[in-house]
Design a protein that fits this description.
Layout lengths: L1 E6 L8 E6 L8 E10 L2 H8 L15 E8 L11 E4 L9 E5 L3 E3 L6 H21 L7 E4 L5 H12 L3 E6 L2 H8 L5 E4 L5 H8 L5 E6 L13 E9 L12 H6 L4 E3 L3 H4 L3 H17 L6 E6 L3 H9 L6 E5 L2
Parallel strand pairs: 8-9, 8-11, 9-10, 11-12, 12-13, 14-15
Antiparallel strand pairs: 1-2, 3-4, 3-6, 3-15, 4-5, 5-7
Helix pairs in contact: 2-3, 2-8
Length: 325
């Protein structure tokens, strides 16, 4: 018998209940992992509140975690008991133990702790595909990243700077502005006190940006489009403020023959080779020091409701994890 955070029906943070549950032995192709930590992400909120449809009820939220393999299912190769592993596409990581598909797990290299791995897999590989594959960022590019002080934002800002770009961010308080500036950003706009469209125009002398990475959604659309150069790319990869409604394709023409994409991590790590390439690139920039990782919030997994309230209330910065001990 193990413990997990269980949801019987969608709703607010209070619908999550910490209780005992049976966990079957790992099936063919699976690893059973005693988790050290799970990552806290907005995708967990989306499944909890019904923005994303859960496959069934009851369910355990959480997509990201790390820990130690305690048993190995049939037909698994490349993993053994005692291996430290991490994953970003699992289901039900708000739990003490979990069965995960071996094809979705990667070994944690020396020099990276379980807690750091649990907190960076989803956010860090999101930054990887956004910066290296959705729009290959490099010297000469000017980019805008909303939610610069968030988990993806702090990793992406440092990584983009490492790639040679001029990096502009937005954040919602002076403290968050300072945090982002300490993590690779050349300029950060406090969107609560400044008009970010006007500030981007000022910063770039009217040239605007090659790409805008937007995980905020409703609050930043369509203003994000006004920050783009002609034929620039709008990347919508989240909706922390709410879903963008009534998207008007004609706006893309009116604002400069713009491009738009709505990617997801799972669309960029669908094969084992893609997953390993993304994870290895992330581990490399972290171990090299090009991307510094700091865990800003730790919550016992049994207090996941408080963690969700803080996340939705924009009271968190950087990386947040749920701990199992």
């Amino acid at each position: 018998m193990t413990h997990a955070m269980v949801i019987d029906a969608t709703g607010g943070p209070e619908v999550m209940q910490w209780r005992e549950q049976d966990l079957a032995p790992p099936g063919p192709g699976e690893l059973r992992v005693r988790q050290s930590a799970a990552g806290l992400n907005f995708i967990d909120v989306y499944f909890r509140n019904g923005t994303y449809k859960a496959p069934s009820f009851p369910f355990v939220p959480g997509k990201e975690g790390a820990g130690t393999v305690v048993s190995v299912g049939r037909d698994v190769t490349g993993f053994a008991e005692g291996d430290r592993v991490a994953y970003a596409g699992a289901s039900g990581t708000y739990a003490e133990e979990i069965n995960v598909a071996a094809t979705g797990a990667v070994r944690i290299p020396e020099g990276i702790s379980d807690e750091v791995a649990a907190g960076i897999m989803l956010k860090g590989m999101t930054a990887e595909y956004l910066l290296r594959r959705t729009f290959p960022v490099g010297p000469g590019h000017t980019i805008l990243i909303h939610a610069a002080a968030g988990g993806v934002g702090l990793i992406a800002g440092q990584w983009a700077k490492h790639l040679g770009a001029t990096v502009i961010g937005t954040a919602g308080s002076d403290d968050k502005v300072r945090l982002a500036l300490d993590h690779g950003y050349d300029h950060v706009v406090n969107y609560r006190t400044e008009n970010f469209v006007e500030r981007v125009a000022d910063i770039t002398n009217g040239a605007k940006c090659d790409v805008v990475y937007d995980s905020v959604g409703r609050d930043t659309y369509p203003a994000s489009l006004d920050c783009l150069k002609r034929r620039g790319l709008f990347v919508s990869f989240g909706q922390s403020s709410g879903t963008i409604e009534n998207f008007d394709l004609a706006l893309l023409n009116q604002k400069g023959s713009l491009y738009v994409t709505r990617p997801s991590l799972f669309g960029y790590t669908a094969t084992r080779a893609e997953l390993e390439e993304s994870a290895n690139a992330l581990f490399d920039v972290v171990r090299s020091g090009a991307v510094r990782v700091r865990i800003d919030q730790r919550y016992p997994v049994s207090e996941a409701a408080r963690a969700h309230r803080d996340l939705e209330g924009r009271r968190t910065t950087g990386i947040s994890i749920l701990t199992m001990r």
